[in-house]
Backbone:
């Protein structure tokens, strides 16, 4: 069973790219466009994600609000959240809000993989395969 | 009779005249219509839009023409009327402006009609009637009522006035003749030779004027009234004349005549050009000729002299011609060129210029009677002959012929001609009637020689040939018949043997001679007749007896015949003239007639012998005759020679006599002049004397002083009426001795005083008192004639009692005033018109330490040390003294000896002039030095307090200036600390509305009320003290005294005056808050208590405060705006960098995903893609960096740079960063030499420090490629030092500081990419750590960056 990662980002390209990379790295990736979608997703599904990659600036419900919601939900409060931001907040702020990891955009693909791997070890059997290889093997 | 009323009406104007007239007449009144026949007993008025003329008793309306010249409807009507009905016309000129009507009346008068003018005194506008009267065309000058009466009487008396031609036949010749003879007697002019129609018409007119119905009555009237004869004569001579009458004639003169005349004068010494205008009337014709001639001559006019004679029988006309002043009407038709050139405008009209007048000579002259002018070149005799009967014409025309030169020209009127005078004149222009003189040998009988032709001087009346009775005529006819049948042929000759009359058939004996035509008997005698005839004539002449010669042989047409001659002297009627009657008888004829002697022929022997005998006889008689002729001739010659000599001598004599006479005349004239002058002078003197006498009498009567004049014998010569009262002198006393008069005052010495004055010839004067103690002044003066001769005395006695009393009164008053002046504690000075001190009071001398003796009489500026010499003061004082003005509060500051610097307030008032009329002024002097000092001190204190207040206000305002609302609250409180008890401040809002933003009250409890005044804006703008007004105009307003609180409510725009009442309001002012040149609000200040009102000093202070507060508000507003701008920028930067970073992150991830994980050869990309992908990633990194920097800067400027401090090892950090640069350094071919062995621990922000190192290294690599770079970490006690040294081009010293600023790079490095933010950020970070960063020159080339960081970290954390 692949660990499930919830990527919450309103930037579709970003979400797609991360999804591709993590899928290739052997994760099950679920996307949500904003906090509301993410909450709905998590409250509907019986399989909670192993972790959440959370963008902060989003419409409807932004990262901060989602973090607050998560903390209020017993079922969800234990899910580790890695905060991704292009904004002003720094790591300390992110952690104080309940985030366990911090990724300042832009970040290295290796940093991403390391951060995710640290919180949700991927299926060891599955090697990292580049998702966007131009040679399909 | 019908009446036409012509009025000046404006076109389109509807006249109310018909209605107005209807009230005055019963006749129907209508407006004249074109083509309407004029009905009797009818009144017509003129329509407004057309002019009325009359033709054939029918109206012809002429549309009024708007163009040329002046509009003269009355003249038009009159002229048409005159032409139409002639004598039956009557013209009346009533009140009106300008001169319309005058020419019309003239026309009527010429045609024999009657003319009236309203008496100008009765006319509202007297110009029209006055003009007519002045022109002499009005027969009657009457007031309108009288005119009406005249017209009515005319209508009654002359219901059908006859036309002249009918009258002519109706009148009896005797009556006409009587009038003519009366005229001749009275005026010397024989009008029997003038055309009867003219005469008739004029007489008729005069009859109408005198309301005479029959000519016989008039002939009687004229006989009794000599003046009437003159008037008639003058009227007979009214000629129609004008300038350039029949202008074509003048043109013809210019082409035909003038060139000829001038050609004839193109010789040396040309004779003068002479022109004669007989019957010239008022001279227009003469001047017209002069104008056209001068015009024709142009510049040649100086070539010869010119004379133009104008002659007329009427003296009055000649007088007018000489003056040559013509009315505007007269020259109206004249071309402007003539007017401009030859006329001068005068008061009375236009006068012909002197140059022209000098050419023209006017004389009173009767062309028919007086000797003519001679050697005339041109005669213009136009429209003169038409007035003459043919007889007179026949006489005058030869005279004109005689007068002319050769060549000579005659100009006649259009209707005149010289029919029957073809021998004298030749036509050269038939249309213009120009004739030229023909040369003839015949002498012309001239007036003054031979039979009198005109009667120049009044003569006793003689029977006119018309008046010869008819019976005499028949006798004469019979005589004539018998004579022609039975009397022998005869001729009547005069003394010169010129034949005067032929009787019977003389052709047998006489024949016209060959050669020049002659009527001389001797020349006409037929062959053979001459010897006997001449002898007989000679004999008869000498003997004075009848001489008869018989059997004279002669030949007639080749037939010999014998003739008897008889010469009988006849005495002609006029004395002295001897005529001879020569009778011719045929022998045969005689025989038939039964002569006394038989024919001798048969008695004389043989036919041959008798022939010889006869020839011999003839010869001897011829000889005899010749001899006598020769003798006669010789005697005659002698006689002629001597006569000639005598004549020459007497001529000389006459000439000298003439000269003497001329001289004598000159002398007489001059002495006459002198006499006139003397006479004038005397008259003037006389008048003066009369005046003087009158003056004197009046003076005496009006002088209220008793004066008596005595002559040398002390007798009374003259006295004034007043003397009667005082001295009891009455008119009867004139001539009486003065001593005999009993005076009212007893003065026994008077006589001796008079004697004294007479002896010394010096006046004497003394004041005396009468019995009642009244004062008189007696004055005795010598009476001196104008040459200084003494002739008696003048005694006057003036009552001076009041005067004396007044003097006493005045001196008392003066003492009184002087005493007061002296005791007044204010310095007073009295000065005269020269500003000389007349007097001064004691106080003055004391105050100014002056001495009275030196001061009085001295001039003000000379007093003391000249302290009073202040120009303005002296001028003002002079004004006071001389003009009676007053002077108040004139201030001078001077240093006075012994007093020091003093300020004086000087006032002055004029004093009424006193002795000798010198005007004076009194000066008051007030020492205000102390008062001024006090005042100055007060002002100084007040100013200082105000300044301190302002300073304190500003001091309070400044720290608050970031929030102006708060600041204004404070301002309000500061304001009431000094200015008033409460204050509100209003500001203009961005939308232009006004809002209260602050309020303060000295009583904190009431402050809330002040804040919550419900105020409505805009308050009334037009209210002068309103807040809105102050804001609008920027003018401060002060209202020291508030009487009505509701007024202030209006001013402040509140609807709750009761609030104001609770706040208290006694005094109010409002000042603008001004910042940067505009009014941004207003501060209203109110005093609640009556203790003190606002004054101008308060207002000034408030204005000052408002000024400063306004500035502070404006600054605060600006600051806010700037802050907002910075905030917006940072916001933007943050958002922008965030937004940029998101896509960058995606891009980077994607690129790395393509690259694949390192060290996985099976997933490696084709070799050729690797470097490209590398570059793409590098650029991504660079972009990331740039964005990072921007974000950093915005963070720094926003003051949000926060440090995450932790204990770190700088050396380790450096080594790590350098490790990251290895690859890059290699590609830049730079050796990195690191000396950071020892750990350097400090509490710093790791990431930030990394940032600095990274920045410095990447700079070094970028600016100094291919050169080694040294990186060192050093340490001291307190500092950690990082040194990065390169060997690049280096940075000049001037730029060392600049490069650390935002967006700056070292000069010469523009070629390198980057925003120039790196060093700025580095410095900000270092400074945030409490350290510093600097650049130094490296050894040799290159730069050396030194970063110093405190090892302890920041004390404040």
Residues:
């Amino acid at each position: 069973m692949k660990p499930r990662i919830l990527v919450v980002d309103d930037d579709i390209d970003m979400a797609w790219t991360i999804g591709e990379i993590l899928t290739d790295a052997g994760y099950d990736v679920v996307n949500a466009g904003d906090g509301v979608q993410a909450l709905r997703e998590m409250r509907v599904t019986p399989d909670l994600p192993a972790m959440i990659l959370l963008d902060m600036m989003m419409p409807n419900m932004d990262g901060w609000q989602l973090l607050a919601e998560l903390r209020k939900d017993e079922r969800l409060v234990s899910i580790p959240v890695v905060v991704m931001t292009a904004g002003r907040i720094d790591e300390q702020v992110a952690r104080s809000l309940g985030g366990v990891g911090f990724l300042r955009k832009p970040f290295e693909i290796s940093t991403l993989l390391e951060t995710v791997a640290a919180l949700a070890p991927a299926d060891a059997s599955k090697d990292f395969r580049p998702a966007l290889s131009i040679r399909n093997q | 009779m019908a009446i036409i009323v012509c009025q000046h009406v404006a076109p389109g104007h509807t006249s109310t005249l018909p209605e107005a007239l209807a009230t005055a007449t019963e006749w129907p009144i209508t407006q004249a219509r074109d083509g309407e026949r004029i009905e009797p007993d009818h009144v017509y008025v003129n329509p407004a839009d057309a002019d009325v003329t009359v033709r054939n008793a029918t109206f012809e309306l002429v549309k009024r023409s708007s163009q040329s010249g002046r509009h003269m409807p009355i003249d038009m009507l009159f002229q048409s009327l005159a032409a139409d009905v002639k004598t039956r016309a009557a013209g009346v000129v009533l009140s009106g402006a300008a001169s319309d009507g005058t020419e019309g009346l003239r026309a009527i008068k010429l045609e024999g009609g009657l003319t009236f003018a309203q008496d100008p005194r009765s006319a509202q506008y007297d110009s029209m009637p006055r003009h007519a009267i002045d022109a002499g065309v009005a027969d009657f000058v009457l007031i309108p009522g009288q005119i009406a009466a005249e017209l009515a009487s005319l209508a009654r008396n002359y219901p059908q006035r006859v036309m002249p031609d009918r009258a002519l036949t109706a009148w009896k010749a005797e009556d006409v003749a009587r009038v003519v003879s009366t005229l001749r007697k009275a005026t010397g002019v024989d009008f029997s030779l003038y055309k009867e129609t003219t005469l008739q018409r004029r007489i008729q007119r005069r009859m109408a004027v005198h309301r005479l119905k029959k000519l016989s009555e008039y002939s009687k009237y004229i006989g009794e009234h000599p003046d009437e004869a003159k008037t008639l004569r003058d009227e007979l001579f009214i000629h129609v004349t004008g300038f350039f009458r029949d202008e074509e004639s003048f043109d013809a003169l210019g082409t035909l005549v003038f060139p000829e005349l001038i050609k004839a004068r193109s010789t040396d010494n040309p004779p003068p050009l002479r022109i004669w205008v007989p019957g010239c009337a008022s001279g227009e014709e003469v001047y017209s000729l002069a104008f056209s001639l001068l015009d024709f001559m142009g510049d040649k006019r100086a070539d010869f002299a010119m004379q133009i004679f104008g002659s007329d029988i009427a003296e009055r006309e000649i007088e007018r011609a000489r003056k040559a002043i013509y009315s505007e009407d007269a020259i109206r038709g004249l071309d402007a060129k003539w007017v401009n050139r030859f006329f001068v405008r005068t008061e009375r009209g236009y006068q012909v210029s002197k140059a022209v007048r000098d050419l023209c000579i006017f004389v009173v002259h009767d062309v028919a009677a007086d000797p003519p002018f001679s050697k005339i070149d041109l005669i213009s005799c136009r429209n003169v002959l038409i007035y003459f009967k043919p007889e007179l014409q026949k006489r005058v025309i030869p005279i004109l012929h005689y007068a002319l030169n050769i060549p000579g020209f005659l100009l006649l009127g259009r209707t005149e001609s010289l029919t029957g005078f073809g021998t004298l004149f030749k036509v050269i222009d038939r249309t213009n009637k120009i004739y030229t003189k023909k040369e003839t040998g015949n002498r012309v009988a001239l007036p003054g020689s031979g039979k009198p032709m005109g009667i120049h001087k009044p003569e006793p009346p003689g029977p006119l040939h018309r008046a010869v009775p008819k019976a005499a005529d028949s006798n004469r006819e019979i005589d004539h018949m018998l004579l022609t049948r039975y009397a022998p042929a005869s001729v009547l000759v005069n003394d010169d043997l010129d034949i005067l009359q032929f009787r019977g058939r003389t052709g047998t004996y006489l024949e016209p001679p060959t050669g020049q035509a002659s009527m001389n008997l001797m020349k006409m005698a037929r062959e053979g007749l001459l010897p006997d005839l001449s002898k007989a004539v000679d004999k008869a002449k000498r003997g004075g007896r009848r001489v008869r010669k018989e059997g004279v042989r002669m030949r007639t047409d080749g037939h010999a015949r014998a003739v008897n001659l008889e010469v009988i002297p006849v005495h002609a009627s006029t004395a002295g003239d001897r005529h001879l009657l020569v009778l011719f008888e045929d022998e045969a004829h005689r025989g038939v007639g039964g002569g006394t002697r038989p024919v001798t022929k048969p008695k004389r022997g043989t036919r041959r012998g008798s022939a010889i005998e006869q020839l011999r006889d003839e010869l001897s008689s011829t000889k005899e005759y010749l001899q006598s002729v020769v003798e006669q001739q010789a005697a005659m010659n002698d006689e002629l020679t001597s006569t000639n000599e005598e004549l020459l001598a007497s001529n000389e004599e006459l000439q000298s006599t003439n000269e003497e006479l001329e001289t004598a005349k000159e002398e007489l004239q001059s002495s006459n002049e002198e006499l006139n002058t003397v006479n004038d002078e005397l008259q003037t003197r006389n008048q003066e004397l009369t005046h003087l006498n009158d003056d004197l009498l009046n003076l005496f009567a009006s002088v209220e002083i008793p004066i008596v004049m005595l002559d040398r014998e002390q007798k009374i010569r003259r006295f004034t009426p007043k003397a009667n009262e005082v001295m009891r002198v009455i008119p009867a006393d004139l001539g009486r001795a003065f001593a005999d008069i009993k005076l009212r005052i007893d003065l026994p010495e008077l006589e001796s005083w008079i004697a004294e004055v007479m002896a010394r010839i010096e006046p004497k004067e003394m004041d005396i008192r009468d019995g009642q103690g009244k004062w008189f002044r007696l004055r005795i003066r010598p009476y001196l004639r104008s040459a200084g001769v003494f002739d008696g005395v003048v005694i006057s006695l003036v009552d001076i009692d009041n005067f004396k009393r007044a003097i006493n009164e005045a001196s008392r008053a003066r003492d009184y005033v002087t005493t007061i002046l002296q005791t007044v504690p204010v310095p007073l000075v009295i000065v005269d018109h020269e500003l000389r001190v007349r007097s001064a009071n004691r106080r003055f001398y004391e105050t100014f330490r002056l001495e009275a003796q030196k001061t009085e009489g001295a001039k003000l500026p000379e007093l003391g040390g000249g302290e009073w010499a202040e120009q303005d003061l002296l001028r003002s004082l002079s004004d006071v003294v001389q003009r009676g003005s007053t002077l108040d509060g004139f201030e001078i500051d001077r240093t006075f000896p012994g007093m020091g610097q003093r300020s004086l307030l000087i006032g002055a008032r004029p004093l009424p002039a006193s002795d000798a009329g010198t005007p004076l002024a009194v000066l008051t002097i007030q020492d205000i030095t102390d008062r001024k000092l006090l005042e100055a001190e007060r002002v100084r204190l007040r100013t200082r307090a105000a300044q301190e207040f302002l300073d304190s206000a500003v001091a309070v305002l400044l720290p608050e200036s970031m929030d102006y609302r708060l600041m204004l609250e404070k301002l309000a409180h500061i304001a009431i600390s000094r200015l008033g008890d409460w204050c509100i401040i209003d500001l203009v809002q961005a939308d232009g509305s006004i809002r209260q933003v602050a309020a303060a009250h000295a009583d904190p409890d009431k402050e809330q009320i002040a804040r919550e005044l419900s105020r409505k804006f805009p308050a009334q703008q037009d209210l002068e003290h309103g807040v809105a007004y102050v804001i609008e105009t920027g003018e401060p307003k002060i209202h020291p005294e508030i009487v009505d609180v509701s007024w202030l409510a209006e001013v402040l725009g509140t609807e709750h005056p009761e609030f104001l009442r609770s706040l208290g309001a006694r005094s109010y002012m409002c000042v603008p808050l001004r910042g940067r040149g505009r009014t941004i609000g207003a501060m209203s200040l109110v005093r609640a208590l009556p203790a003190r009102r606002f004054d101008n000093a308060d207002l000034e202070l408030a204005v000052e405060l408002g000024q400063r507060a306004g500035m502070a508000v404006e600054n605060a507003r600006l600051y806010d705006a700037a802050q907002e701008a910075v905030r917006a920028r940072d916001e933007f930067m943050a958002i922008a960098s965030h937004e940029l970073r998101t896509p960058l992150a995606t891009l980077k991830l994607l690129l790395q995903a393509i690259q694949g994980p390192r060290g996985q050869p099976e997933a490696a990309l084709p070799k050729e893609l690797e470097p490209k992908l590398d570059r793409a990633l590098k650029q991504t990194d660079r972009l990331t960096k740039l964005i990072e920097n921007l974000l950093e800067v915005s963070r720094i400027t926003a003051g949000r740079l926060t440090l995450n401090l932790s204990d770190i090892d700088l050396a380790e950090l450096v080594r790590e960063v350098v490790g990251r640069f290895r690859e890059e350094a290699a590609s830049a071919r730079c050796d990195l030499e690191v000396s950071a062995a020892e750990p350097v621990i400090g509490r710093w922000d790791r990431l930030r420090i990394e940032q600095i190192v990274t920045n410095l290294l990447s700079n070094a690599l970028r600016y100094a490629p291919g050169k080694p770079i040294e990186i060192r970490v050093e340490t001291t006690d307190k500092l950690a030092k990082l040194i990065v040294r390169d060997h690049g081009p280096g940075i000049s010293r001037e730029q060392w500081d600049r490069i650390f600023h935002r967006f700056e790079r070292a000069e010469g490095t523009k070629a390198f990419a980057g925003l120039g933010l790196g060093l700025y950020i580095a410095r900000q970070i270092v400074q945030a750590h409490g350290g510093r960063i600097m650049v130094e020159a490296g050894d040799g080339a290159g730069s050396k960056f030194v970063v110093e960081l405190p090892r302890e970290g920041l004390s404040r954390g």
Observations:
- Confidence is low (pLDDT under 50) at residues 124-137 of chain A.
- Residues 67 and 97 of chain A are 7 Å apart (CA to CA).
